[in-house]
Write a structure and sequence with these properties.
By secondary structure, the protein is of the alpha+beta class. Helices cover about 35% and strands about 25% of the residues. The protein has 4 helices and 12 strands; from the N terminus they run E-E-H-H-H-E-E-E-E-E-E-E-E-E-E-H. It has helices at about 30-50, 60-95, 110-140, 275-290; strands at about 5-10, 15-20, 145-155, 155-160, 200, 205, 210-215, 220-225, 230-235, 240-245, 250-255, 270-275. The protein has a 5-stranded mixed sheet. The longest helix is centred in the N-terminal third of the chain and has 34 residues, at about 60-95. Bound molecules: copper (II) ion. Copper (II) ion binds near residues 156 and 265.
């Protein structure tokens, strides 16, 4: 015999609803859901606390700033994640269906205003705090004594050009671009400033010296990403985008393209070689002498 009957009517059959076994409630799935939530929270916490996937060590001051900002964002959002998921687990158990009559609540305007403002404050605050790490690499003028290197991307290669002894890049003419004839960048041979330009397939920079990298693309959108510099910047056709960095650790670091730029995207990479000042000079003179 039914224990509970509503006086609402079935919209299709115009028959009264009959809800049987109402008094027993349907609370047990909510306990399972709470356990599942706690397991997910525990597993997520473990992945971060155990450092299962550590990032490679940073090699520049800006990379350290990016790491600091990343950790701050992670702590704040991690705390919100923990609080939200554990509160959810508590609430689904505490207010589970025990057969009691449901109570309709319209919401709470004061609470809604409070947590929306708090979310806005946290997001804008984190953005403002992270501005320095972002702006240092992109909008700050290059430091004094910075060396200029032009990085050109095209499917699926990087080419790095150094201005040579005169410190000036030669003119580039797109109609002269011809990789098979040894002029992949289209350097105009009639411009004297371009005669001593050095083009290399790897980016070689002296340790501790600021570098202004001018990124260009000849075809589609590519990207310049070095994990250890925590620096990732798109190269756009028709634009010259300048990024600054100073690598403080001698070593070899991979440069990868993180834009899906075509069929050969998977193999588009190069090397950042951070070397001593004398090795850098030797590299430049060796490249200059190469045919
Ligand atoms: Cu690419």
């Amino acid at each position: 015999m039914p224990l509970f009957t509503t006086n609402r009517t079935d919209p299709i059959g115009s028959q009264p609803f009959r809800i049987s076994n109402r008094a027993r409630g349907s609370g047990s799935p909510s306990v399972l859901l709470a356990i599942l939530l706690i397991l997910v929270v525990g597993a997520t916490l473990f992945i971060f606390v155990a450092h299962l996937y550590p990032a490679p060590a940073p090699i520049s001051r800006d990379a350290v700033l990016v790491d600091r900002q990343y950790h701050l964002t992670l702590y704040v959002t991690g705390a919100v994640f923990l609080l939200a998921q554990l509160s959810l687990a508590y609430i689904v158990v505490r207010f589970r269906d025990r057969g009691q009559k449901a109570r309709f609540v319209r919401g709470n305007v004061a609470l809604e205003t409070f947590w929306t403002s708090l979310t806005l404050f946290v997001f804008v605050g984190l953005g403002v705090l992270g501005r320095k790490a972002w702006a240092d690499a992109r909008f700050a003028p290059p430091a004094s004594g910075a060396i200029q290197v032009e990085g050109t991307t095209y499917q699926f290669v990087y080419a790095f050009r150094y201005p040579g002894k005169d410190g000036k890049f030669g003119r580039i003419d797109p109609s002269l671009v011809s990789a098979p004839s040894g002029n992949p960048l289209g350097i105009d041979p009639n411009d004297p400033a371009g005669r001593d330009d050095v083009v290399a397939s790897e980016l070689v920079v002296p340790v501790g010296r600021p570098v202004e990298l001018l990124l260009r693309s000849q075809d589609v959108v590519h990207n310049f990403f070095v994990r250890e510099l925590r620096l990732q910047q798109d190269a756009m056709p028709g634009m010259i985008i300048s990024v600054n960095f100073t690598a403080d650790q001698i070593g070899e670091y991979e440069i990868v393209c993180t834009q899906l730029c075509g069929l050969g995207h998977y193999k588009m990479h190069s090397l950042l070689r951070v070397v001593s000042p004398s090795e850098f000079e030797a590299f430049l003179s060796h490249q200059a002498m190469a045919p």
